[in-house]
Design goal:
single chain, 222 residues, alpha/beta, 7-stranded mixed β-sheet, 8 helices
């Protein structure tokens, strides 16, 4: 098995199941032209996020890590007409690219980009009284544990919390890893393995984005 094959299969799935879309394609081009790292979700992964949001009838979504706004657009399109999405981004350049991409997609009234460190922005969001039906965490891995704890505070029973990039090309299972990103995910895993407020699992994925995976947690009501 190889990266070439994984990418070919992803391309096949996208060609058959995820039709080309002008706004999303433009967002990818704009991110590439701005030289943002190509670490956004793949098109089929973006559609999965949208399907998950629609499956629970999400009306409010929180995204931690905007980048160029590609996943943001996927998630926002899954909302009903009165839905709202707040996305957090630390890098002004990323936020500027995302703002233009979101405007081109016609979603400026739906999406609220908050610029700054997420761990400083999240308390303010809590003070504003927001509750979210879905939280997508795709930001710096060292702070994943803290992001997840904030997600628990900002959700309700029946909400979904999704954490991306948790496999790290398999390195997450290496207890001797010295990589800060891997250690951040390992710390997160240790913190949630006995977390009784959620029903949680993790999955490995291969595809155009390489070998990785995600965690999905359902906030419990009991």
């Amino acid at each position: 098995m190889s990266q070439e094959l994984w990418t070919a299969v992803d391309d096949y799935l996208v060609e058959n199941l995820v039709p080309s879309d002008d706004a999303l394609d433009a967002a990818l081009r704009a991110s590439d032209e701005a030289k943002l790292r190509a670490i956004q979700v793949a098109p089929n992964q973006g559609k999965l996020l949208a399907i998950l949001a629609q499956s629970i009838g999400a009306r409010s979504i929180l995204e931690i890590g905007t980048l160029g706004g590609y996943s943001t657009i996927w998630l926002a399109r899954a909302l009903p007409p009165d839905g709202k999405l707040i996305t957090l981004e630390i890098d002004p350049k990323h936020a500027a690219v995302a703002e233009k991409n979101i405007a081109y997609a016609g979603l400026s009234e739906v999406i609220d980009i908050r610029l700054g460190r997420a761990l400083e922005t999240l308390p303010k969001i809590a003070e504003e009284g927001h509750t979210f039906d879905l939280v997508f965490i795709d930001a710096d891995k060292a702070s994943t544990t803290e992001y997840f704890q904030w997600a628990l505070k900002l959700t309700r029973p029946g909400s979904l919390i999704i954490v991306d990039n948790i496999v790290r090309s398999g390195a997450v299972s290496d207890p001797n890893s010295t990589d800060d990103n891997v250690q951040g995910i390992q710390r997160f895993m240790a913190s949630v393995k006995d977390e009784m407020r959620v029903s949680i699992t993790g999955l490995q994925t291969v595809g155009s984005k390489g070998y990785d995976g995600f965690v999905i947690a359902l906030v419990r009501g009991d």
